[in-house]
Amino acid sequence: MEKHLNKALFLDRDGVINEDYDYVYQIQNFHFKPGIFELCQYANSKGYLIFIITNQAGIARGFYSERDFVKLTRWMLAEFQKHNCLISKVYYCPYHPEYGNSKYKRTSSYRKPGPGMILKAQKRFHVDLVHSVLIGDQTTDLQAGLKAGIGTNLLVFNPNKKSSSLLEGTFLINSLDDAISYLT
Hints:
- By secondary structure, this protein is an alpha/beta fold.
- Helices cover 30% and strands 16% of the residues.
- It has a six-stranded parallel beta sheet.
- Helix 5 (139-148) links the parallel strand 4 and strand 5 (152-156).
- The relative contact order is 0.19.
């Protein structure tokens, strides 16, 4: 018997869900981006599972601990719940290939542009990647989506990330409101 495949919305955290102030790990510095709750409510209403996939090199670099990250993540998920948004799972990569102590200084397929976090969600939640959407604010987010086989990869304009560029087969959006038209 064939299992039903789910479509999913994959969201980067810093720069997509919250304003990107570099290494955000405290609640008082976490500011939700305009339109994120409306986007997630709409995605849920259309049957999308929502996953947050985030590189957290600040852990490897010793700027904050995994405990700090988990505390902020629990608060963030509670805020989503208050706005009637269901987030299926948060995946994060604390590793960095060049910086950090021995525990975190390593190459990992989970670190974007690697597709590891996406593929883990696909396997656990039976995700149809071709009919899924990824929203990121950096080229590495789009590379991860393309490597995983996600059908629609959106780059949300982030004036603080001048190095981000559009890749073939990806789309530029100016705000999260623009992403809604890609969710079918």
